[in-house]
Structure formats: C-alpha cells, structure tokens
Amino acid sequence: MKTARWLPYPYASATLLAVWLMLNSTLAPAHVLLGAFLGWSIPLLSSRLLGRRVPLRRPLLALRLLLTVLWDIVVANLAVARLILGPRAALRPGFVRVPVDLREPYAVFTLACIITLTPGTVSSSISEDRRWLLVHALDVDDEAALIADIRQRYELPLKEIFAC
C-alpha cells in the first residue's frame, strides 16, 4: 500500500489544493502546481502528528453533510441576528446535554465542531466516556427538539460516514 504512504490523506490533499486555488482566484499552471505541491507535502509531513487514519466509508454522504452544515450556518446566522436585534427578553439561553451514539472519537470530535461552527450553539464539553455533549444554545425553546435536530441532521450522517 505504497500510495497510502506517499499520499496519506487524499481528501485533505484535494481540499488543500482547492482552497489554495480559491484563495488565489486563478487556475494558472504555476498556482495549480504550487497548490498540488502544498496539498501533497503538508499532509505527508504532518501524517505522523495526526495519528491513525480513519477511513471514510461514504465520502459522498460527507459532502452532503458539509453542504447541510454550510446551509445551517447561513440559516443560524440569520436567526441569531434576529434574536440579537430583537427584544432581549426573547432570549432563552441554556445548557443541554445531548446524548451521543458515536463510538469513533473522530466522529464525536467532528460532531462537537459542527455544533460549535453553527451560530447560536457551542459545544462546551464532551464527557470522558464520549457519550454526552454539553451544548450551550443561545435560545432553547424545546430541549428535546434541539437534541432531535442535532441527532438527525449531524449525528446520523456521521454514523454512516465513520462506520460507527
């Protein structure tokens, strides 16, 4: 499996190349080559620091989850703006314990990051056994609905993506 040794994280390499090209807003051959070199060398040089590889069982589902998260970030930004600009009495902040059925540590970490990236929610802590996330939400109307939303939109796809 020599390709894994020379290209340890192909998705990360492709992402680095795409980000490089988007940041430079060009497809000039020099930038494509430099982006490809960075996309190859950075994961290769940092592979020992990153630890074991976690295979993604369903990469297309991962792309769909990414699009869902990006959409949720846009919608949550609008909702938070409406809450902040509205009357302060309308805010109902609170902490919610979200049960987690994911067994892969990277999947739990990814879930916590997704929650934190979404405006209006922050993952405060992960229990030592990784079975609970403590989430702070800016506006908690219904705890059960928040938990169900997190589990349906993020946790279920992560279970399939990380095969856990």
UniProtKB/TrEMBL annotation:
Species, as recorded: Noviherbaspirillum suwonense
Location in or out of the cell: Cell membrane
Membrane-spanning intervals of the chain: 7-23, 29-50, 62-85, 105-122
Top-rank lineage group of the source organism: Bacteria
Key words, A-Z: Cell membrane, Membrane, Transmembrane, Transmembrane helix
Pfam family, one: MNHE
Membrane topology: Multi-pass membrane protein
Name the record gives this protein: Multisubunit potassium/proton antiporter, PhaE subunit
Entries under InterPro entries matching the protein: Cation_antiport_E
Coiled coil: none
Record-stated family: Belongs to the CPA3 antiporters (TC 2.A.63) subunit E family.
Chief location of this protein within or outside the cell: membrane
